[in-house]
Design goal:
Elements lengths: L2 H10 L4 E8 L4 E6 L3 H22 L9 E5 L3 E8 L3 E8 L4 H19 L1
Antiparallel strand pairs: 1-2, 1-5, 3-4, 4-5
Helix pairs in contact: 1-3
Length: 119
């Protein structure tokens, strides 16, 4: 399944979702789908992917296992960031009023599809 289709389905099936981006280990966009400015999503995706890598390094060696993802909440939005193997990340943006549980469920399903395509 093409990356764009996976990202579009993710955004369209989560009420309040505004964008999703697949980025590589350098923070470069591989593919994205959003309901706002593409450039803004690319910048956000790059920065959040870098943060995920830092969190993974900080978490390495702890008995809980490898870090799979994080949720960052601000005054106006949630950002979900997940690892796809060692080299890629998926970032999704949502309105603060979005149902986070549903978003996480759909996000994990999208991660599974992307892992099958990439790894």
């Amino acid at each position: 399944m093409p990356f764009k289709t996976i990202l579009k389905d993710l955004v369209k099936t989560v009420p309040g979702a505004s964008g999703a981006i697949l980025a590589d280990w350098e923070g470069e966009a591989v593919e994205q789908f959003c309901l706002y400015d593409d450039f803004e999503l690319k910048v956000l995706g790059a920065h959040k992917g870098i943060l995920l890598n830092h969190f993974k390094e900080l978490h390495a060696g702890l008995p809980a296992g490898d870090l799979e993802g994080v949720v960052i909440t601000t005054a106006t939005q949630h950002v979900i960031v997940g690892a796809i193997g060692p080299d890629y990340s998926l970032v999704m943006t949502l309105n603060r009023s979005a149902i986070l549980g549903l978003a996480l469920y759909r996000f994990r399903k999208a991660l599974e599809l992307l892992v099958k395509e990439i790894c």
